[in-house]
Design a protein that fits this description.
Layout: H1 8-29, H2 31-34, H3 42-61, H4 70-93
Length: about 100
């Protein structure tokens, strides 16, 4: 059962669908490289997720904090989606989802 809090509807109806769209777009962009993750070593996927997380850190570190540009914010979102995609691949590779 989902525990609902005061932000539940905001996440369910706005943030999660938007983020999942970014995930799908990123997955499609890289589908030639990671389209068969079920046959990929789980530890390789974990290492790729770590690499992507470093890319998130890099993208965040380059943001102009006072007024981040749309380009900077979009890059962070894409890099976060890449991490999430690898997390999904890991869960799927061990039949957890």
């Amino acid at each position: 059962m989902i525990k609902r809090n005061k932000h539940y509807e905001q996440y369910q109806y706005y943030i999660v669908p938007r983020f999942s769209d970014i995930m799908i777009n990123q997955l499609a962009k890289h589908s030639d490289r990671e389209d068969n993750w079920k046959d990929t070593n789980t530890y390789w996927l974990i290492n790729r997720a770590k690499e992507e997380l470093r890319e998130v850190e890099d993208a965040v570190s380059k943001i102009t904090m006072l007024c981040p540009s749309k380009k900077e914010r979009d890059r962070v979102a894409r890099e976060c989606a890449d991490v999430s995609n690898f997390m999904m691949m890991i869960a799927d590779s061990i039949d957890a989802i």
